[in-house]
Every structure is written in C-alpha cells, then in structure tokens.
Amino acid sequence: MASATSRTPPSPPAYVPAAAPLVKLVVAGGFGVGKTTLVSAVSEMRSLHTEQTMTSASVPVDSLDYTPDKTTTTVAIDFGRLTLNPGNPAAPILYLFGTPGQTRFKEVWDQITCGARGAVLLLDLRRPEESFEAMDLLERSAIPYIVAVNDFPGAPYVSDTTVRSALDLTAVTPLIHCDARNRNSVIDALIRLVQHIMTAYHQDTAR
Predict the structure, then answer these.
(1) Is the CB of residue 72 less than 8 Å from the CB of residue 51?
(2) Could you tell me the residue ranges of all domains in the chain?
(3) CA distances (Å), 135 to each of 33, 139, 190, in order?
(4) Can you tell me the distance from the alpha carbon of 64 to that of 69, in angstroms, rounded to the nearest whole number?
(5) Which residue in 147, 58, 56, 70 sits closest to 104, CA to CA?
(6) Which of 78, 80, 85, 196 is within CB 3.0–4.6 Å of 96 for a Cys-Cys bond?
(7) Cα distance between residue 51 and residue 72, in whole Å
(8) Which CATH class is domain 22-206?
(9) Which residue, among 17, 78, 16, has the nearest Cα to 47 in the 3D structure?
C-alpha cells in the first residue's frame, strides 16, 4: 500500500501564533523626537535600526540644540514587535515601523506606511514644528493616529487645550503624554492607539 501524502500545512514559526492578528503601526515625528527610543523601549525582540552616523554635512539642516548627545540618525526604518497579551494566542501582535524624521528621507514614507493600520505621532514641546511635516503626511495618508507628547526633561508646560488648538486636532484625535524611554508608558500609548483604530474602524463600517 502506498503511503499517504500529508496535506497538513506547515506550522507557522513559534513567534507568530496562527490565530494572532498582525497589526502594522507607524511611529512618526520629526528629527530627534524619540522614535528610535520608543521602538527600542517597547520591542519584545531586539529592535532593528537603520541608523547612520551623523556627519558635518547634516549640520546646516539637523539641529542638535535640544539633543546634543545625538550622534546617529535613522535613514530608513526602525522596527520592533510587541504582543499585547503574550498569554493569549489570539492576542494582537503589533509591528512597529519608525519613520525617518527629516524631509530628505520622505521618499520612503509611502513604502513604510503601506498597509499600516494606525500611527503614533511623537511631539516634542520644545520644538513642535519638527513634527509638523510628519503630521501633514499622516493627514494625507488618511491613517488613524494619536498625538503623543514625549515629555522631555525641561520641556515647557503647555496645556492640552493649547496643544490641540495649535495643531488644529479634530475632536476625535487622541492627545496623550508618554515617556518614550519607559516601556509601560509606551505600551499605554500603543493600547490607546489600538483603541482609536478600532473606534475609527467601527465608525467607517457603520456609515
């Protein structure tokens, strides 16, 4: 008797549970606002960073007034992964893609944001204008996003009402505060983003 050929499909890798929904998220913002730090702080795997050493050629365009110790810059992506509830095989797995912060790298924006379900826009209140272009790109991409104020030491106090007004945020766009260095703080921000994505999705399907 000829042996039967197994038609059972191969099992997925252990780090990607079969039932787990995979959610692509973008971490956006200006130069030096903390995108790489955020991805590194929260990723459950060793995060990937496509960074290059900054040279004198960047001096006229990349201000280090508020980040004097910064020696590298992202030129393509930061990448990390987070499972929201590791004990649940059906828990969402978040894939985080950090974007470059400078205008000269914006040609990779469409590639990074393709298929993204939502985004965190990081804001440094010492220089909020650094994130204006990223915000404009998010608006044009029609990706649901939240604004997360990265609370740098020494940043001025600005009320949330003033920030919302200055950014002309819609009433439904969440504005939160986080510490990009703190894993728990970043997780809270990502949970808030997922909640916002789900709300936006249900509103769209109800129309």
Answers:
(1) yes
(2) 22-206
(3) 13, 6, 17
(4) 8
(5) 58
(6) 80
(7) 6
(8) alpha beta
(9) 78
Strand partners, 94: 23, 82
Residues 74 and 102: their CA atoms lie apart, in Å, by 9
153 by Cβ neighbours in 10 Å (0-12 / 13-18 / 19+) ranks as: exposed
| Amino acid making up residue 83 | T
Q: What are phi and psi of 162, to 5 degrees?
A: -65, -40
Structure tokens at 115: 């298929």
User: Position of tokens 């997925």?
Assistant: 12
Ranges of residues in the chain with a pLDDT under 70 are 1-19, 49-76, 101-106, 207
Taking the C-alpha atoms of residue 186 and residue 149, their distance in angstroms, rounded to an integer, is 11
Q: Say if CB 183 and CB 37 are below 8 A apart.
A: no
Q: What is the rounded distance in angstroms from the CA atom of residue 9 to the CA atom of residue 38?
A: 37
Q: What is the pLDDT of residues 52-100, one digit of tens each?
A: 443 344 444 444 454 445 444 444 578 899 998 888 888 889 999 998 7
Q: How many CB atoms lie within 10 A of CB 45?
A: 10
Answer whether 95's CB lies under 8 Å from 24's CB: yes
CB 23, CB 116: distance < 8 Å: no
